[in-house]
Design brief:
Keywords: Membrane, Transmembrane, Transmembrane helix. This is Dolichyl-phosphate-mannose-protein mannosyltransferase. This protein is mainly alpha-helical and 527 residues long. It is built from 28 helices and five strands. The chain has helices spanning 2-9, 11-14, 17-28, 36-47, 59-72, 79-104, 109-121, 123-129, 136-154, 160-176, 181-194, 198-206, 211-219, 229-236, 238-241, 251-265, 272-278, 284-305, 307-313, 322-345, 356-364, 372-396, 403-411, 422-433, 446-449, 457-469, 487-492, 495-499; strands at residues 416-419, 442-444, 474-476, 503-511, 518-525. A five-stranded mixed β-sheet has the order 2-1-3-5-4. β4 (503-511) and β5 (518-525) form a beta hairpin. The longest helix is centred in the N-terminal third of the chain and has 26 residues, at 79-104. The protein is globular and about 85 Å long.
Length: 527
């Protein structure tokens, strides 16, 4: 009994209490509204198609190994569900490693646990911990790199192996997603800047990065490319050459970056008014969260005014030099700025900010006056909000309904389907059938068709009339459905209806969703 009590009261365990909570939530509340990318990655793993994708080279192979491991244990889960479980476990492991880093930085167990709660309750982490996307695993490996790097920096007699392992984990993170190059770069620059023997330290950390080009060289033949430098370059940066990724410096990108930075911590979406109309009691949540956040800010303000007193009263939890703790904080501050800068350059890409809460915690550990109670209140507010408006609805409610389309499209090859989200349907068909090439009768909605090179509204209408004359029916699901205050509605509005003016539209079927029915509509020429 005494051993049990000691284990429960151990500071290393206490700092991980929030980790267990977030892990349990992530495992119990996987999203039931997976993204088109989630379906695509699951299809690739399930049918072993395109396992080595350049932008996140090792994610699908890791998923394949995970599903095989579960099968060895006798657990024959649906592939998509298994991959969501993998990410939930990776999120829990990430929080555990973060807690170890904060403990190494000599935070009190209460303050460390509060920071872990803030990070774990952030929507950026919860969103991808409950989904099959490629953003949580690289955070885990980058944090492992930072853990080894921090141990090396704070050790009384640092061992070279610690720096080598830091380089290994940081390089592996880049193989799971290229965006983590900036985390690796920050640790490399911090290594060179603060080391006494700079060249030796840089080599110890940097040499493991050769794993990255070696892995891409090994993967190149799977894409049937010649083993040449130009082919390797195009393979590594495939998404940029294919137009799937890119960016520019613009005011628009900066605004999106600010908006998505907020959404990294707090779920804000155009579906919230509909949720509040359906469940008015949810209106209590913003009030409670605002009260908790206000109390947290007041407590933080009071502590900041008394920080000299708090610092002198802080318990001595170790003998590590504060200067070396500052090295860790400053290095991760640079990484944080680099990641945010690239996310802003990439049109404020929210997926490129998943690592931000963890980096904020490491940098925030330098605010020794920050009271644990303020951080804990903020963490509880974030968790309550994101459960109410993020994970809960995503698990319990159905935002889209493609079941009928998945049966109608293969059964009617002579019919054109102009779909609001064609890639989602195509990836779901890929997952179901194992055929990576989708049926040719699936096309985007009219608003997207007219944006293709060489297309226009007049050409779209002429094509519609030609198909009618050829006897090919045209169906669409982009008319008369729910209107949410989301990005698509703000950008496109009612353009689909405007483009189809002059044609007869007849509703043939409806698909129930939480936000209201979506309709399958036939487009035909007026007599």
């Amino acid at each position: 009994m005494r051993l049990s009590v000691r284990w429960w009261n151990n500071p290393a365990f206490n700092i991980q209490h929030p980790t267990l909570t977030i892990l349990l939530i992530s495992l119990l509340l996987p999203t039931q509204n997976s993204t088109l990318d989630a379906w695509y990655y699951a299809a690739c793993v399930r049918h072993q198609h395109e396992l080595l994708l350049p932008h996140h080279l090792l994610y699908n192979p890791a998923g394949l190994l995970w599903t095989r491991f579960l099968e060895l244990l006798g657990l024959h889960l649906d592939t998509l569900a298994a991959l969501k479980m993998m990410n939930a476990l990776a999120a829990g492991a990430s929080l555990w490693v973060l807690g170890r880093i904060l403990q190494r930085l000599r935070l009190s167990p209460a303050t460390g646990a509060a920071w872990v709660l803030v990070v774990g309750a952030s929507f950026g982490l919860l969103r991808f911990a409950t989904e099959n996307e490629a953003y949580v695993l690289p955070v885990l490996f980058s944090l492992l790199g930072s853990w080894c790097w921090t141990r090396y920096q704070l050790a009384a007699a640092p061992r070279p192996a610690g720096l080598v392992w830091a380089g290994v984990w940081a390089a592996v993170a880049c193989l799971f997603h290229q965006i983590h190059f900036f985390w690796w770069l920050g640790l490399l620059l911090g290594t060179g800047w603060y080391a006494a023997k700079k060249i030796r330290a840089v080599l110890l950390f940097g040499l493991p990065a050769l794993l990255v080009p070696a892995a891409y060289v090994a993967a190149l033949p799977t894409w049937h490319e010649p083993l040449t430098l130009p082919a390797l370059w195009r393979f590594v940066f495939h998404d940029y050459y294919a137009g799937l990724a890119g960016g520019s410096l613009s005011a628009h990108g900066g605004l999106l970056a600010v908006a998505n930075l907020v959404r990294t911590f707090l779920q804000i979406h155009g579906s919230m008014p509909a949720l509040l109309r359906a469940a008015p009691l949810l209106a209590v949540v913003p009030v409670v969260c605002a009260g908790l956040a206000g109390w947290a800010m007041r407590a933080a303000w009071q502590s900041s005014r008394n920080r000299v007193t708090l610092r002198s009263a802080e318990p001595d939890l170790g003998s590590s030099s504060p200067d070396f703790r500052a090295v860790v904080v400053r290095t991760h501050g640079f990484i944080l700025l680099a990641q945010l800068g690239f996310a802003a350059y990439s049109e404020g890409n929210a997926e490129f900010m998943v690592m931000v809460p963890a980096l904020v915690a490491v940098v925030g550990s330098g605010l020794r006056w920050m009271p644990a109670r303020a951080l804990a209140a903020l963490g509880v507010a974030l968790l309550l909000w994101n459960l109410a408006f993020g994970l809960g609805p995503s698990y319990f409610l159905r935002f889209s309904n493609t079941d009928r389309l998945l049966t109608e499209i293969p059964a009617r090859p002579a019919t054109w389907f102009l779909l609001d989200n064609p890639n989602l349907v195509l990836n779901q068909l890929h997952y179901r059938t194992g055929r990576p090439t989708g049926p040719p009768n699936v096309l985007p909605a009219p608003t997207l068709l007219v944006r293709r090179p060489g297309q226009s509204a007049a050409r779209l209408r002429a094509w519609l009339r030609a198909q009618q004359q050829a006897g090919r029916p045209i169906l669409t699901d982009c008319l008369g459905g729910p209107r949410l205050l989301d990005r698509a509605q703000l950008v496109y509005g009612d353009q689909n209806a405007e483009l189809l003016q002059g044609f007869r539209t007849t509703r043939l079927d409806s698909f129930p969703t939480f936000f209201g029915p979506r309709y399958l509509t036939k487009i035909s020429s007026k007599p």
